[in-house]
Protein 1
Amino acid sequence: MTPEDTARLCEAAAQAVREASAELRLVDCAEVLEALAAEGHFAEEDTIGLEEARALLPGLLAAHPALAVLESRTGRTLHHAPEQLSRTYARILDRKGSPLLLMAEEIRANSRDYPRPVPAELFEGPPFELPPEDIAHAVAAMAESPDYQDISSVTTDTGAVYLFSSQHMERGYAMFLAEQTESLTLAP
């Protein structure tokens, strides 16, 4: 295989990752190979064979400056194009299969990085799109699990439930911020 062949494979693979990212999907090497094969990249007249591409692709995708690698919660190596699909959104997509983990990590990140508690209803909207019963189940399961003992809730005077991590925020401060947010939300 020539350097030009390798460069063409790399760019075709990167384009497949960009297209998946534009559709809000993360892809692994096997999915990229499938996309390339569907486009006819491994036809008999091609100088790059499928097995050769299979061997080269992980390194090419990992080294591509416009792509990002995400180690999935399931152990798979996934790829995305941060210009189309941010790293934060990619992590959310990866965790969608585990509402408990998804919610806990978002709650911890908000408590640590901003700091702010998050309204439980946040998880009903995009990009989370969890049904209210899944949210309630996850909150109850977190209260019972030793892995999530830092996840706590406060309820405002209006009845809104806010979630926070006690690793990064004290209960009184979380309550103050939740009440502040609610008063701003209700203000005319």
Protein 2
Amino acid sequence: MADIVAPDVRSRMMAGIRNKDTKPEMAIRKGLHRVGFRFLLHDKRFPGKPDLIFPKWRAAIFVNGCFWHGHDCHLFKWPSSREQFWRDKIARNQENDARAFGILRETGWRVALVWECALKGKARLDEPEILRKLTDWIRSGSETMTIRGS
């Protein structure tokens, strides 16, 4: 199926999509900062450049967009144009995620993943509940955690 907008318009639209400081990420950052946590942001020294890094707790949090990382939820739908391009791109993103998480775990870091669907859409969770889960996880010493929409 052909795209419904011109290639130059689509290019501008795609260029405008952020890969950091997204609304879901900002909600998590503001909430954790409000309860007293201090963290690093997108530090290139860490595999996958986690969205939030807590050196004191040896913990890293990724806030992933459901579309860009191919999450199996109501927010993800395979595009109908340039299908192979998108399948390859999303597969690469998933491989990069798995590699980064593995390296972080091997080097003694704890990793949490918050999916976009936990913060928006029909399956979203209550934001205070998400922040409580993250706060408990950071303090707990548990190795991994994933938060997704209900």
